[in-house]
Structures are given as C-alpha cells and as structure tokens.
C-alpha cells in the first residue's frame, strides 16, 4: 500500500471576515487559484488549525458544487459572491462524502475552514471578506 504523504499547510495569504456587528475574524489561508489546486483542495490533510483555511478563487461566477472526496477532516464550506459577501454555507461536510454540496447561489470564492467554526464565529449571509496574497 502506498502511504500518502501528509500535506502541510502553507500560508499564502491572509483573509479577514467582516461581520455585521463590526467584529473581524483573521485567518491565514492557502489559495487555490489553479485548476490543479482547486481540484485537490484539502484532500489528504490530517488536520488544520482553527485560524487556517483554504480560499478557492474562480475565474467566473456561477453556482458551485463541492464534495469531500479524499478529504479526511470535516469542513464548513462558505460560498462567497463576486461582491465578497457570503451567499451560503454547507456546514459540517463529512470526510470522504462524495455527495454534491451546492452553493445554491452564484459564487466566485469558496472558503473552507474546520467544521463548526462558521457557527462558533456566528457567520451570516452578507458578512464580507477581504484577502491579500502574502507571496
């Protein structure tokens, strides 16, 4: 049996979530902005820190469908529109579940964080994000 190498988190940017009550949540992010990175996502990871996430950046704005193939950790999937505002959530996505998890609304960005954090942080539709690449 081939042992899959664990992939380590590589900080590629910083993301801030701006909530309606003016509080902010700051995360270190990996950025998935190539076809390969978007297809691979967080597959084969054993863990992610609470203040880490992966931001998927797409070239177009349309309904997105994510799934958890080869993904070992439960995730909250946060769909974000072209205006940088949260449009929908798929919370507590189960490891290895290949069912489709639709955004139900057009999205340009998708942020994946550890399952439970969207509720813990009390994120809501229309909260907004900004992000910068750090390298």
From TrEMBL:
InterPro entries with a match to the protein in the record: DUF192, Saro_0823-like_sf
Taxonomy, superkingdom: Bacteria
One Pfam family cited in the UniProt record for this chain: DUF192
UniProt cross-references to Gene3D superfamilies, sorted A to Z: Protein of unknown function DUF192 (2.60.120.1140)
Name the record gives this protein: DUF192 domain-containing protein
């Amino acid at each position: 049996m081939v042992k899959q190498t664990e992939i380590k988190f590589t900080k590629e940017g910083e993301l801030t979530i701006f909530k309606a009550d003016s509080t902010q949540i700051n995360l270190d992010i990996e950025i998935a902005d190539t076809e390969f990175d978007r297809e691979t996502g967080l597959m084969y990871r054993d863990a992610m820190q609470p203040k880490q996430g992966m931001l998927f950046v797409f070239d177009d704005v349309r309904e997105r469908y994510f799934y958890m193939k080869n993904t070992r950790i439960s995730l909250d999937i946060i769909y974000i529109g072209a205006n940088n505002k949260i449009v929908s959530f798929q919370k507590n996505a189960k490891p290895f579940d290949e069912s489709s998890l639709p955004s139900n609304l057009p999205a340009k960005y998708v942020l994946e964080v550890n399952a439970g954090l969207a509720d813990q942080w009390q994120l809501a539709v229309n909260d907004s994000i900004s992000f910068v690449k750090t390298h």
